[in-house]
UniProtKB/TrEMBL annotation, chains A, B:
The lineage of its organism: Bacteria, Bacillati, Actinomycetota, Actinomycetes, Kineosporiales. This is MarR family transcriptional regulator. Residues 18-152 form the HTH marR-type domain. Transmembrane segments: none annotated. It comes from Pseudokineococcus basanitobsidens. PROSITE patterns: HTH_MARR_2. Pfam families: MarR.
Length: 158, 158
DNA sequence: GTGACATGCATAGCCTTCCTATGTAACCTG
DNA sequence: CAGGTTACATAGGAAGGCTATGCATGTCAC
């Protein structure tokens, strides 16, 4: 094999960095997400799991707020909510303060489902993560923390 | 704000870490991928960009090898290759050693497109990454490195 | 050789997940 | 209460992915 030079020149030494870091991060995150999504045979499709997580984290939400948080269009959020409600994982209630708005929240069944989903994901990933050295896991955890802050910072004000 | 407790509870038991790390990683990676994918108005759809990157990194590949690397089904890889070829970003050649097989490789146009894609992604992410502190970026870079190793380790033998 | 199985890719048909554009009902402002 | 704005729903369509299946080529036992 001709050993092509790598397509993603990592930030080996100097700064080189912000540009490469962004691309490397995007590539790695995308590949990992894809891999993990297939490895874990999910009880719930990704889109629903994402939406349901947002609801659990951030309480009752309007459809449009959910759309903003999930970075989807409002129609997509409407559809997601409809499917969640069909499954019994979320409930819709009129907003007492605004007749146009709808407040969506997780149901108890949704919470249970979410825990199961997370457990399945954890099971699927455990072997791989377990094969890492302790300091690698620590690096990964710090990276995740930064990533969380990054994404949160870009989040809509709500 | 009611301050709901975090959505990602840990297993009460012993080490606590690996499980949570996996779920947190998956959640963050998925959210980041989704956010970045929308923020960068991509000249090329994600699926094509993924496939093309693999081709550039790993040289001429059989369709089935590409499928394995990209964690897609073989029919999906066939479709991706067809679209890449349509755009002129990849070329197909018969495998001289196996009449059934096809060797796919990036074209020069594909390489140019890929560089442009990466530049666009870098531009889109630069402001966010730039807003991080230097040590945060370093943490992130280390995390990405670990993630790369993790995904690579799970990759098919090829 | 030649029949039987294995392998590599293509095709068919379907589902999910998104999008934009547009409609409708409820709010607000003068 | 007319006109604009806001919040959600609906319509229609594209992309990306899957399983199942078909077809051609290799491989191996005999």
């Amino acid at each position: 094999m001709p050993e092509r030079t790598t397509a993603i020149p990592g930030p080996p030494g100097a700064e080189g960095g912000v540009q490469d870091l962004g691309v490397a991060l995007l590539v790695s995150a995308a590949r990992f997400t894809r891999w993990a999504g297939r490895a874990a045979d999910a009880p719930m499709p990704q889109a629903l799991w994402r939406a349901l997580s947002q609801l659990e984290e951030l309480g009752p939400l309007r459809v449009s707020a959910l759309a903003a948080l999930d970075r989807t269009s409002q129609p997509t959020a409407t559809a997601l909510v409809a499917r969640l409600v069909e499954h019994g994982w979320a409930v819709r209630a009129p907003d007492p303060e605004d007749g146009r708005a709808v407040l969506v929240d997780v149901s108890d069944a949704g919470r249970r489902q979410l825990h199961e989903q997370r457990a399945a994901a954890a099971r699927a990933l455990a072997p791989s993560l377990g094969s890492l050295a302790a300091d690698e896991r620590a690096d990964l955890a710090r990276g995740v923390a930064v990533l969380d802050r990054l994404v949160a910072r870009e989040a809509p004000a709500g």
